Amino acid sequence: xxxxxxxxxxxxxxxxxxxxxxxxxxxxxxxxxxxxxxxxxxxxxxxxxxxxxxxxxxxxxxxxxxxxxxxxxxxxxxxxxxxxxxxxxxxxxxxxxxxxxxxxxxxxxxxxxxxxxxxxxxxxxxxxxxxxxxxxxxxxxxxxxxxxxxxxxxxxxxxxxxxxxxxxxxxxxxxxxxxxxxxxxxxxxxxxxxxxxxxxxxxxxxxxxxxxxxxxxxxxxxxxxxxxxxxxxxxxxxxxxxxxxxxxxxxxxxxxxxxxxxxxxxxxxxxxxxxxxxxxxxxxxxxxxxxxxxxxxxxxxxxxxxxxxxxxxxxxxxxxxxxxxxxxxxxx
Length: 332
Ligand code: PBG
Prior knowledge:
Strand content: 15-25%
Bound molecules: ligand PBG
Strand order of the largest sheet: 1-4-5-8-9-10-11-12
Order of helices and strands: HEEEHEHEEEHEHEHHEHEHHE
Shape: globular
Oligomer: single chain
Distance between the termini: 44 Å
Largest sheet: 8 strands, parallel, barrel
Radius of gyration: 21 Å
């Protein structure tokens, strides 16, 4: 350096980055296991867990192996799970009848977990896609192109009561029908389930990042040219932010206890905007495609897995999420 060169500045932000201690003292965002909700896939049967090819290290569990997973999770400090059932093909129908079975796979799993691990919070997914033969989140009209809103909400409300009676802590409608939060709140209250909370998927986008999830629960239609369903008639347009604010506001007015944004990583602006406008806690769902993308790149040696996982979760929290649904929960 030229000896005459002198940078005359008083403010040097790097001072605070000089030592590990200074860095740690100034750290604004921490992700801890108690912020995380582990999504889990479940299936019928007694045999062990299946691999999911598009989601390395994630398995589809029988109820028995789910209980073992819960034990491991609670040892790691994970206090909440969100089960998603892979419903047998023979139980799927146009009207999603199995969704209203008190002994459905999902309801049996909730009961079994609550019995063994009463302190484990359960987020029950409320949507019809695991149960419909076409894989949509609702009942199709005669044209086969449009999901009937009110008919779908009626089933979701019934499904919510069953999940709450099975012991779910949170009812989490992920269908994006209009008015479902209010209908669910009403019916829960009528059934003396006023302590069951609603975690509303308020800003759920019509995202291409759900692909691996649809493989995992088997809701991707088979043998069609288009591999994944188009859900743009109910999920939000990824180009829109104001529409997400309107959805969040409606869910809050209808009685949601927690508002969710999904996916997370590419929707940090939405998390931050909703956070500014509500005093409710915010959840964000780091979805299957986000998980698989990070996994694929790190398996190839292109990214440092541990650091990327941590950075992705920290960013979601920094944007304003109070809790994160993530398939990385066990690793963190
Ligand atoms: C459907 C549902 C989806 C996810 C959770 N619930 C997918 C969809 O809308 O098709 C996606 C989660 C993920 O990708 O990890 N009700």
